[in-house]
Amino acid sequence: MSTKPDVIRKCLWPACLVGLLITGVLSLDCNLLHFHLRKVTWQNLRLLSSMSNSFPVECLREIKAFELPQEILSHTQPVKRYIVEAFYEMSIQAFNIFSQYTFKSTWENDYLKQIQIGLDQQLQYAERCLEEEEKEEDDSKEMEEDGINHSEATVPQLSNLELRRYFNRIDNFLKEKKYSHCAWEIIRVEIRRCFYYYFQKFAPLLRKK
């Protein structure tokens, strides 16, 4: 599961022309991360809900616990950069999952395209913000080299490994179930839970900044 962002965009370019209308100017300003996160997360949550009218009763017996990581930030006061990295990781992993969809009779193709467009836009936004964070870090290092002292803050470390393992469990489940109708319905609900959980976790932290 290692699809590169540039490959993703090449495949989605025609659809992205339409998708550009979805996120608007918020995607241009990393200082508005909280508002952007809320906008695209709720957009994707609505799409994931709309893809199916209700969860099939016959699939209940196949539900599996995928062990969503509860803590991916090592401290209670995370730096914005690490939230953006988590945002990026979830977006690319979820995109790779939905790119494998081949069960034609279950979900409408339009919903899948809209989900992929939204995830691609999240990737572009996260990349832009990470680049800005790196530039700020470089500027800060230059200031320190010039003799300007800064108080050292505790910097948390993000473990994307846990997120990757989580999405690998989802991927393996789909393969084991041979991409069945029930497997896709279970995954749809699980990824929706993932987005909702981390949005609820990150949004208050970003508001404090």
What does this protein look like?
This protein is mainly alpha-helical and 209 residues long. It has one domain (5-51, 80-135, 158-207): Growth Hormone, Chain: A (Up-down Bundle). 66% of the residues lie in helices and 0% in strands. The chain contains six helices and no strands. It has helices spanning 5-23, 33-50, 80-98, 109-145, 160-176, 181-207. Helix 2 (33-50) runs antiparallel to helix 4 (109-145), helix 3 runs antiparallel to helix 4 and helix 3 (80-98) runs antiparallel to helix 6 (181-207). The protein starts with a helix and ends with a helix. Mean pLDDT is 74; it is low at 13-27 and 148-158.
Domain tally: 1
Pairing-aware structural class of the strands and helices? mainly alpha
Radius of gyration of CA atoms, rounded to a whole number: 18 Å
Low-confidence stretches: 13-27, 148-158
What is the general shape? elongated
User: What is the CATH class?
Assistant: Mainly Alpha
Largest sheet: none
The counted number of beta strands is 0
Distance between the termini: 33 Å
The overall pLDDT, averaged over residues, is 74
**In the CATH scheme, what's the topology name?**
Growth Hormone, Chain: A
Estimate percent helicity. Answer: 55-70%
The fraction of residues assigned to DSSP E strands is under 5%
